[in-house]
Specification:
It comes from Pseudoalteromonas fuliginea. Keywords: Aminotransferase, Pyridoxal phosphate, Transferase. This is DegT/DnrJ/EryC1/StrS family aminotransferase. The protein is α/β, with parallel strands linked by helices. It has 2 domains: about 220 residues, 3-Layer(aba) Sandwich (Aspartate Aminotransferase, domain 2); about 120 residues, Alpha-Beta Complex (Aspartate Aminotransferase, domain 1). It contains 13 helices and 14 strands. An 8-stranded mixed sheet has the order 1-9-8-5-4-2-3-13, with helices on both faces. A 4-stranded antiparallel sheet has the order 10-11-14-12, with helices on one face. A two-stranded antiparallel sheet has the order 6-7.
Length: about 375
Amino acid sequence: MIALNKPLRPNITKLTTYLESVNESGWYTNFGPLHEQLTKRLEAYLGVKHLLLVANGTLAIQVACKTLNINSAITTPFSFVATTSALLWQGVNTAYSDINPQTYNLCPTALSNALAQDNSYDAVVATHICGNPCDVHEIQSVAEQYNKKIIYDAAHTFGVKLNGESILNFGDASTLSFHATKVFHTVEGGAVVFKNKADYEKAKQLINFGIKDGDELGEPGINAKLNEYQCAVGLTLLDDIEQVIKHRTALFNLYCSELKGVVKLQQWHSEASLNGIYVLIYIADEYLQHSIITALATENIQSRRYFTPSLDIAYSEQKNFGCNVSHTLTKGVICLPLHAYMTTEDVFQVTNLIKKTIQLTAVSS
């Protein structure tokens, strides 16, 4: 079987060494030594400052919103459900603006038109879909014009750079997911990278029940800390992350080479690096979609419809400013297998089967 995804398995010898150190110290959570070590190593590796580890990527979005005093936001309808559910759970008044049909990211022109209609929102929450950076400069220009804060859902963008700079350095905050399905993980976990140090310090209090130095209580907070056992997994996996990203990127490039001109592929930002987290294809014809998914499943190759339904349809009670592009894409996007344990032979098996199915479908029709 070729699995859609396989989480990275930490080296058990290295991991055990870290876990033994936790047991010896008896410091299992609450900003322990492994937490501080992972924070520093991630800041150095990613090229960022003010990185705050949290318990998961959903909490990362919620903590960013709470820290930046976001009560209302315009976001993308084309993303994993957590982007929206995190906002709604937090009580953020949420609306949707459409995406670019080539990049699949929030469209700056559509965003500008939406804000021209209704300028009451506090912020923009945009997702870098499949690690493909948004047009951050255009979104920044729109945000400045309308005086909005920006949060980037960067769950897919571990290690991605734009013109040599970490994509996490754009906006007022960027959130990461370290879920087991991601390029880098801590089993469950996440992080927020803040532009400003003051926001980072406020957020660090908020994720520890709002406790200030000593026992003084400040603004009500929550418990969103990452524990030492999970940090141990992160430290173990971080040792080999360069090789992992290099391999995944090679597989991604091979997919694109084999499928270019065969199916529609996501248009990548010309100035951005890759991390090989996901590969999406778009098939407009429903019969052909079904044929490809069925052919893959018959050969024990997993695939997934991603992301469906469009979030403005799933949460239809929320305002939207027209999301026709998202509606079209969610009806035809298929996510193909891609993970660190795949081989080039696996990619050829997937792509050859897709080509064969398209040819057979064309002949039968």
